[in-house]
TrEMBL record:
It is found in: Membrane. CDD domains: MFS_NPF5 (cd17417). InterPro entries: MFS_trans_sf (IPR036259), NRT1/PTR (IPR044739), POT_fam (IPR000109). PANTHER family: OLIGOPEPTIDE TRANSPORTER-RELATED. GO terms for cellular component: membrane. Pfam families: PTR2. This is Solute carrier family 15. SUPFAM superfamilies: MFS general substrate transporter. The chain crosses the membrane at residues 54-77, 144-166, 172-192, 288-305, 325-345, 365-386, 406-427, 448-473, 493-517. Keywords: Membrane, Transmembrane, Transmembrane helix. GO terms for molecular function: dipeptide transmembrane transporter activity; tripeptide transmembrane transporter activity. Its main location: membrane. It is a multi-pass membrane protein.
């Protein structure tokens, strides 16, 4: 609620209160959101290497709360805002001073530091509460991330409906004070549960462990790898058990890294000789990178929700009787769609697919992500068609140059918002579960941070594309595709470009996922659950119900 209470309507605050243009404000939003989603990789590193997930989350939450408090002050005190302006073209209004911008952006980026420690660790702490060696708990864990995302977007629904309405119609002070108070309450609830949590101790620097493998492999560049993997260097299972960790068996992928665990002479330096388990941990983190890259484009699409999609809404009729809908409230339909789809997916879709696939998850995580990518392509095709129709109506009613309201209901944008929620139910839930599940045991926070990093990079790509396309399309005397006056712009072309980009990305994803090798489970719980499904199917065939 706190994060989306700020991000959902931030572009309107930047344009109406800080008097920034469309491209500038959209880029400032995506740059900030990009940073928000990039810092978790640092928080994950601190958690896995030094402080542990619990203390990293607790300290980061305090930083998060201080950022929210400062942001509330920044939107409340008249001395921290430029004078009000009612010009149609906000670029003609007085600009915010250096001090005003410093306080406002200082608060925003304090939030980014706080989220660096909260986002990769709280979901990991939740998943850590399930025992992988207990089949029943493992079964519950398979549903955990569905309900995790359900909980997140339940808070998002409040932000996108109630909070943005308060910000638009009551005031920004109350609109920011409420999520600040909500954040304080949530931190208190988390701390109250401390005695009941299962805590995982930090296992040392993830990046150092991976660097040792890569350096050792490079130093033994010319050393041949034995044909029998049992000749590679490895510790006994008992040694791992004493440390509360697990031994990982050798896999035939990324064979070059196997050189790191080839025994050559008496040099047993950790930068010269690594165990098979260390090598396999590094392999697993590297194997996920092509999948990570394939999620950059859909993350770029998600950045449009709180930027261009919202700006489109400001050009349309937002009235239902005497009630005026805040443009950012349309994002609530993304949330509602996701909430409904997550429930349908977990309660019905999984059970139906289990009958055919005998997979406890219904379908694989990569298959679920692939469905989400297909929907993302469809979203941009629909968004382009809708925008083309909006521009056609604008021309027919002569409101192109004036930038006046187009006589169309804001609800013509609903399909792209609803489908975005459906895509999230497949892609975003599968993504966070995939990177958590496929990461080695002592690198779970880093693995989870992959899922946030892709959102960060997606926002930076969005900023880059927006600036580049805006600049390139203005060359040779052309007006350009993206202007402050959206009625003169060509967002339909821009969205069509995104549709092509999504289609090419879908092909890339299909290619890399075909060669992906899933991590070997540390327990046989999944096998037990799969066996139960097969036995249940056989039982139903032999003894059909009357």
């Amino acid at each position: 609620m706190a994060y989306y209470g700020i991000s959902s309507n931030l572009i309107l605050y930047l344009t109406t209160k800080l008097h920034q243009g469309t491209v500038t404000s959209a880029n400032n939003v995506t740059n900030w959101v990009g940073t928000i989603w990039m810092t978790p990789i640092l928080g994950a590193y601190v958690a896995d290497a030094f402080l542990g997930r619990y203390w990293t989350f607790t300290i980061a939450s305090t930083i998060y709360l201080s950022g929210m408090s400062l942001l509330t002050l920044a939107v409340s005190l008249p001395s921290l805002k430029p004078p009000a302006c009612y010009e149609k073209d906000v670029t003609k209004c007085g600009k915010a001073s250096t001090l005003q911008l410093a306080v406002f952006y200082g608060a925003l980026y304090t939030l980014a530091v706080g989220t660096g420690g909260t986002k990769p660790n709280i979901s990991t702490i939740g998943a850590d509460q399930f025992d992988d060696f207990h089949p029943k708990e493992k079964l519950h864990k398979l549903s955990f991330f569905n309900w995790w995302m359900f909980s997140i977007f339940f808070g998002t629904l409040f932000a996108n409906s109630v909070l943005v309405y308060i910000q638009d119609n009551v005031g920004w002070t109350l609109g920011y004070a409420l999520p600040t108070l909500g954040l304080l309450v949530s931190i208190m609830i988390f701390l109250a549960g401390t005695p009941f949590y299962r805590h995982k101790v930090p296992a040392g620097s993830t990046f150092t462990r991976m660097a040792r493998v890569i350096v050792a492999a490079l130093r033994k560049w010319e050393v041949p790898v034995p044909g029998n993997s049992k000749e590679l260097y490895e510790l006994d299972k008992e040694d791992y058990a004493k440390k509360g960790s697990y031994r990982i068996d050798h896999t035939p992928t990324l064979k070059f890294l196997d050189k790191a665990c080839v025994k050559t002479d008496s040099n047993t330096s950790p930068w010269m000789l690594c165990t098979v388990t260390q090598v396999e941990e590094t392999k697993q983190m590297l194997r996920m990178i092509p999948i990570l890259v394939a999620t950059f484009v859909p993350s770029t699409m998600m950045a449009q929700i709180n930027t261009l999609f919202v700006k489109q809404g400001t050009t349309l009729d937002r009235h239902i009787g005497s009630f005026k809908i805040p443009p950012a409230s349309l994002a609530a339909f993304v949330t509602v769609s996701l909430l409904v789809c997550v429930v349908l997916y977990d309660r019905f879709f999984v059970k139906i697919m289990q009958r055919f696939t005998k997979n406890p998850r219904g379908i694989t995580l990569l298959q679920r992500m692939g469905i989400g990518l297909v929907i993302h392509t469809l979203i941009m095709i629909i968004a382009s068609g809708t925008e083309s129709y909006r521009l056609k109506v604008a021309r027919e009613h002569g409101v192109v140059e004036s930038g006046a309201q187009v006589p169309l209901s804001i609800f013509i944008l609903l399909p792209q918002f609803i489908l975005m929620g459906t895509a999230d139910a497949f892609l975003e839930v599968a993504k966070i579960e995939f990177f958590y599940d496929q990461a080695p045991e002592h690198m779970k926070s880093i693995g989870t941070s992959y899922s946030t990093t892709t959102l960060g990079i997606g926002n930076f790509i969005s900023s880059f594309l927006l600036s580049t396309v805006s600049h390139v399309t203005k060359k040779n005397g052309h007006k350009g595709w993206i202007l402050n006056n959206l009625n003169e712009s060509h967002l339909d072309y821009y969205y069509a470009f995104f549709a092509v980009l999504n289609f090419l990305n879908l092909i890339f994803f299909a290619f890399v996922s075909r060669f992906y090798v899933y991590r070997v489970e540390v327990s046989d719980s999944i096998d037990v659950l799969a066996k139960e499904l097969k036995e249940k199917t056989v039982s139903n065939v032999v003894n059909p119900k009357d």
